[in-house]
Design a protein that fits this description.
Number of helices of chain A: 16
Largest sheet of chain A: none
Radius of gyration of chain A: 21 Å
Helix content of chain B: over 70%
Radius of gyration of chain B: 22 Å
Distance between the termini of chain A: 19 Å
Order of helices and strands of chain A: HHHHHHHHHHHHHHHH
Oligomer: heterodimer
Strand content of chain B: under 5%
Number of helices of chain B: 17
Structural class of chain B: mainly alpha
Largest interface: A-B, 61 and 56 residues
């Protein structure tokens, strides 16, 4: 688990969040859910979990409280200043809750992979695959196929295998862990990456066809996952300039809040008003979507400033509280 | 884990649980919906998963295929029922495969099977602390977070995510982990039969008068009842003559569930009518009391399950060798894929060095 922050990964987080803003700027109207800009951008959500998998998530109660606490704060801000009920807004953050669910399951995956990764013989490595493969196949074969046209009628359906579930995020997390453990960075090259990306774009855009029904471009699609892996690979190759690094370092703590601020019914009203205004100015639809996404991104950063100031102001009591929870965490889960 | 010798007490427990599930199917919909034993029978499903956790699941492709062969057979029987009872059953055959259809248990169980290597590895290789760190969150998800979402007043304030429902695989994973822990700490030896009986009585009282609040599958009370009954049945000394009967019925239990799940499912969306409803109404028309009708319908669906599964069982016995050879071949191929994959990775690492 990295202690020193990797600026390239932080930059990737910012880029992915801007794409997530684009997904919502386009797809906040249900009818536009299958718009090509929205479906192409879906790799961003997968990319976020892939980063978590690559860096590893260490389960702690403190992290869960921090995440859910940020969710409550953002829901309150949106409710007070824009509109909507706090509870309703908070409950609508599917990614937050699914991510927390994934965090709960992460220790199981972590331990399994850590125990066996140091071993070299075939049999023991096979154990890793034996444990990991079914979990990935569950989402990327069963979950994915249950959305396929015609076939879905005969594929068994069960709770939690939808693209928005904790199990889907767990499978992506496992892929992220495997990326690191099996050193996928060294196995891929630019030629392979470009080929895979082109293939994935074609695959994802196929879901625009009427028969496809959109299933090729959801979060449990192998095309979306492969595209996200390629983007991740590219960013691991990037050297971030110190100036850019400083900006990224300043934005990164607000990245998750950006999602929480704009992904709710309250902000969708803002999207709607802005869209109407921009269209009345004669702007094309694509410009409007991109502009809306950028506004949501920067507005998220600005709206998160009070939270960051509050954290600085109440640094001492918060630090004390965090230490208390951490102590409980350590003694319960990680103490010897 | 994975012992071939079966404990007759546990097999009897499985038969009782299956009868409980048949009874549950009789009282949870249609005529007399929600009458008394409905609340109490929530422990039957956790009981099954608890048994699996106690003995451990070893994942293999052949097991998944074997498992799914039963619901496929049961689905094929459905049109037959449709032919007897009325028209329009073909579409509903596929609806049985839905998440809310008759076979939800199997799908969730298969997901548990897929995760079982991970959980087993945790129990076999990790230290006590690491085990605790991995198991507590899973149990929290299945037996706490999911449970709170069952209550109308609380669910509005608690974050929800797909997969936290009472009949989900995460619930099964939690029960499986608890059962493995119980085995590790030798629950059956540490708890006396008197305590187990007292525990089951108190849980039964709690469930009986809970008005549906505790009867969800993911409720800890149901799990405690299932675990204490498991301890009681495990200690039972069963005479040989009864063991023979148990041994005969035991292989059909899963089929009984599937077939009972199929015939329990309503024929059409417009008209709520199923085979179980037909049996209940027929007995009621004969002048039997409500509870007698329900019991007879449950017994009927149990026996229909056993009888209807006989042809499948017979075919399985006759074609035992080719089926076994095919499944063994499949398992070997799966193993080979894993071995070749790990060789490939090792080759890459060696190149890198």
């Amino acid at each position: 688990m990295a202690i020193e922050r990797d600026r390239a990964i932080d930059l990737l987080r910012c880029v992915l969040m801007s794409f997530i803003c684009l997904i919502h700027a386009v797809g906040y109207v249900d009818a536009r859910c299958n718009h090509c800009l929205a479906i192409i951008s879906r790799f961003a959500v997968v990319g976020f979990v892939l980063i978590s998998g690559y860096l590893g998530v260490r389960f702690s109660v403190l992290k869960v409280i921090k995440l859910e606490g940020t969710g409550v704060f953002c829901a309150m801000v949106i409710s007070v200043f824009i509109g909507g009920e706090v509870v309703e807004i908070f409950r609508s953050y599917w990614f937050l809750h699914a991510y927390v669910l994934m965090m709960f399951l992460a220790p199981l995956v972590n331990k399994c992979l850590e125990v066996n990764v140091a071993l070299t013989n075939y049999a023991k490595k096979k154990i890793v695959l034996h444990a990991v493969l079914p979990c990935v196949l569950l989402v990327y074969l069963w979950g994915f196929m249950s959305g396929a046209p015609l076939i879905w009628r005969v594929i068994p359906r069960t709770e939690g295998l939808v693209p928005f579930s904790g199990l889907t995020l767990l499978a992506i997390y496992v892929v992220g862990r495997c990326y690191r453990i099996f050193n996928l960075q060294a196995l891929l090259s630019w030629y392979k990456i470009i080929f895979i990306m082109m293939f994935c774009v074609i695959g994802v855009l196929t879901s625009k066809l009427s028969w496809a029904g959109g299933f090729l471009a959801w979060y449990n699609s192998p095309f979306v996952l492969s595209f996200a892996i390629c983007v991740f690979w590219m960013f691991r190759k990037i050297n971030v300039y110190p100036f850019v690094g400083r900006i990224v370092a300043w934005i990164t703590p607000s990245v998750f809040s950006i999602y929480l601020f704009h992904c709710n019914k309250g902000w969708y009203l803002v999207f709607d008003k802005l869209e109407t205004m921009f269209l009345s100015w004669g702007m094309s639809e694509y410009y409007v979507f991109v502009l809306n996404a950028l506004i949501a991104f920067f507005a998220g950063i600005v709206m998160d400033v009070p939270r960051r100031i509050l954290i600085v102001v109440f640094k001492r009591p918060l630090k004390w509280l965090c230490q208390m929870i951490e102590k409980v965490d350590e003694s319960v889960f990680y103490g010897h | 884990m994975g012992t071939n010798k079966r404990d007759p007490g546990i097999e009897l427990y499985r038969i009782c649980l299956m009868f409980g599930i048949c009874l549950l199917h009789c009282v949870c919909q249609g005529m007399w919906r929600g009458i008394w034993p409905c609340n109490l029978l929530g422990f039957c499903v956790p009981g099954f998963v608890f048994i699996s956790g106690w003995f451990g699941i070893k994942f293999s492709l052949s097991k998944v295929i074997r498992l799914y062969s039963i619901p496929v057979y049961a689905s094929l029987l459905a049109p037959l029922c449709g032919g007897v009872m009325g028209n329009g059953y073909w579409i509903d055959v596929l609806r049985v495969w839905d998440a809310d259809g008759g076979f939800w248990f199997i799908h969730a169980y298969v997901i548990l099977m897929l995760f079982s290597p991970l959980i087993n590895m945790m129990f076999d290789k990790a230290s006590q602390k690491e085990k605790f760190c991995a198991v507590v969150p899973i149990v929290f998800i299945g037996m706490c977070w999911g449970v709170l979402l069952n209550y109308n007043h609380l669910r509005l304030y608690i974050p929800s995510s797909s997969g936290l429902e009472s009949g989900s695989s995460l619930t099964f994973m939690a029960i499986y982990c608890i059962a493995r822990l119980c085995r590790e700490y030798r629950l059956d030896e540490k708890i006396s039969i008197v305590i187990a009986i007292l525990c089951s009585i108190s849980c039964t009282i709690l469930l009986s008068f809970s008005r549906g609040y505790f009867c969800h599958i993911n409720n800890p009370v149901c799990l405690v009842l299932a675990a204490s009954l498991f301890v009681i049945f495990k200690r039972l000394e069963i005479p040989n003559s009864i063991t023979k009967v148990i041994t005969f019925f035991s292989p059909f239990m899963f089929s009984v569930y599937c077939i009972s799940g199929t015939i329990y499912f309503p024929f059409t969306e417009q008209k709520f009518f199923s085979v179980i409803e037909f049996i209940k109404k027929s007995f009621f028309a004969m002048g039997f009391s409500t509870y007698t009708c329900v019991l007879l319908a449950a017994l009927g669906s149990f026996l229909i399950g056993v009888i209807a599964d006989l042809p499948r069982w017979l075919i399985g016995r006759l074609a035992k060798q080719p089926i076994h050879a095919f499944l063994r071949n499949l398992d070997n191929k799966y193993e080979n894929v894993l071995v070749s994959f790990s060789r490939l990775k090792q080759g890459c690492e060696n190149d890198g060095k």
